[in-house]
Design a protein that fits this description.
Layout lengths: L17 E2 L2 E2 L8 H15 L2 H15 L5 E3 L1 H7 L3 E5 L10 H14 L4 E6 L3 H12 L3 E7 H6 L1 H9 L3 E5 L6 H15 L3 E4 L9 H23 L3 E7 L4 H7 L9 E9 L16 E5 L2 E5 L24 H9 L2 E7 H15 L5 H13 L8 E5 L8 H8 L1 H14 L1
Parallel strand pairs: 4-14, 5-6, 5-8, 6-7, 9-10, 9-14, 10-13
Antiparallel strand pairs: 1-2, 3-4, 11-12
Helix pairs in contact: 2-4, 3-12, 4-5, 4-9, 5-7, 9-10, 12-13, 14-15
The structure holds pyridoxal-5'-phosphate.
């Protein structure tokens, strides 16, 4: 398979505009200068030893890299198939892989002399990561978040505000991630001279998809090295796919190799009906343009961007990053999905077996690990990326897993408030 971006391997990084027929830069005239400048600065920063040194220090001392690769011995025995490993990315500072990208782009923004960061967020993890990076690097921060997501991810709203970010509630459309992206793009069109927009996934107009891939590749590079140290060759890697940033980063060093199998897991939600899931790659999505890029989107019969559902806010998005769309089309990445119920079961399984609480997004990858491991043998290795930890989801999972005790707790909190 031809490498969609051969420049990625060289020291001089020139971000790809297109991945096969996907990607591009579909923005109004107002934003073109901002994207041209960003690309120029990114290319120059990438080969600047001072920028690379700042990034390394931030990864080591602020993010907490490397994150461990855990041999999930109990889960492997219980399932009776492959040897399962968990990449514990959720142990990164602020609880998810999102911080890798937020810190990289915040350092770039500081180098460009920007004073203000804006971000969109769904699960709140990217917003929280951006708020943390902004506080750390002395930048102002404003985060757009859909009203539905603010309600279901309230703990992250408090955390962002505590770090000094302003969280702006978005009440348009379905009041979720796609509407937050629209609000952030509108803000950036008017403010880019002093503001940088940190897109939280491997999507948006070029150079964002390739830049986010670059900042997330550390997840896969560490995993490759940790597997080498453990003397294992991976048979299968599994990651969940919202916009695609944890998956593309995790898969990155393996993309040009014939193995392992790379499996992306989308949100099967409540089932296959329209509006009940966020299955783009194996569902009825169509080629379209939104949020500045061309890719596969779920749309309604009028060609409008469709409504989606997932129990996990981070997978509840109608489009998929252009590089993943292209790699899905070429067959290098296989796509499947897991339902809300399967994700909850997987969350409970890994918590009981390994004492590890997956984020709801990552639990979709866990569900497919549970499905596929028994079909493999103990000399084969399956690695699942736990892109985030589950603390942020307690208000959702507790209600689902132990409803009565949780409601009792909430009642007593209100009474004592
Ligand atoms: C923990 C976690 N995993 C995965 C995702 C999905 O995003 P992406 O596909 O960009 O990795 C999110 C998004 O918020 C998240 O918080």
């Amino acid at each position: 398979m031809p490498d969609p971006n051969p420049n990625r391997k060289s020291g001089d990084f020139t971000p790809a505009d297109y991945f096969g027929s996907y990607g591009g830069r579909f923005v109004g005239e107002a934003l073109r200068p901002a994207l041209d400048t960003l690309e120029r600065e990114l290319v120059s920063a990438w080969k600047d030893p001072a920028f690379q040194a700042d990034l390394r220090v931030a990864r080591d001392t602020f993010i907490g890299r490397p994150t461990p690769l855990l041999y999930a011995e109990n889960a492997s025995k219980a399932l009776g198939g492959a040897r399962i490993y968990i990449k514990m990315e959720g142990l990164a500072h602020t609880g998810a892989h999102k911080i890798n990208n937020a810190v990289g782009q915040a350092l770039l923004a500081r180098r460009m002399g920007k004073k203000r960061l804006i971000a969109e967020t769904g699960a709140g993890q990217h917003g929280l990561a951006t708020a943390a990076a902004a506080a750390r690097f002395n930048l102002e921060c404003l985060v757009y978040m859909g009203a539905v997501d603010m309600a279901r991810q309230r703990p992250n709203v408090f955390a962002m505000e505590t770090m000094g970010a302003r969280v702006v509630r978005v009440d348009s459309g379905s009041r979720t991630l796609k509407d937050a992206v629209n609000a952030a793009l509108r803000d950036w069109s008017a403010t880019f001279p002093d503001t940088h927009y940190i897109i939280g996934s491997a999507l948006g107009p070029s150079p964002f998809p390739d830049m986010v891939h670059r900042f997330q590749a550390v997840v896969g590079e560490e995993t490759q090295e940790q597997l080498r140290q453990a003397g294992r060759d991976a048979t299968t890697l599994i990651a969940c796919v919202g916009g695609g940033s944890n998956a593309i980063g995790f898969f990155s060093p393996f993309l040009d190799l014939p193995s392992p199998r790379l499996v992306g897991v989308e949100a099967g939600g409540r089932g296959p009906g329209p509006g009940d899931n966020a299955v783009r790659m194996t569902g009825p999505s169509r080629m379209g343009v939104a949020h500045g890029y061309k890719s596969r989107f779920l749309m309604d019969s009028d060609g409008q961007i469709g409504v989606t559902h997932s129990i996990s806010a981070g997978l509840d998005y109608p489009g998929v990053g252009p590089e993943l769309a292209s790699l899905g089309e070429s067959g290098r990445i296989e796509f499947t999905s897991a339902t809300d119920t399967e994700a909850l079961e997987a969350l409970r399984f890994f918590a009981r077996q390994e004492g590890v609480l997956f984020a709801l997004e990552s639990a979709h990858a866990g569900a497919v690990a549970i499905r596929q491991a028994p079909g493999l043998s103990p000399d084969q290795t399956l690695v699942v990326n736990m892109s985030g930890r589950g603390d942020k989801d307690l208000f959702i999972t507790a209600k689902q897993l132990d409803r009565e005790s949780w409601l009792e707790f909430l009642r007593s909190e209100v009474e004592n408030a």
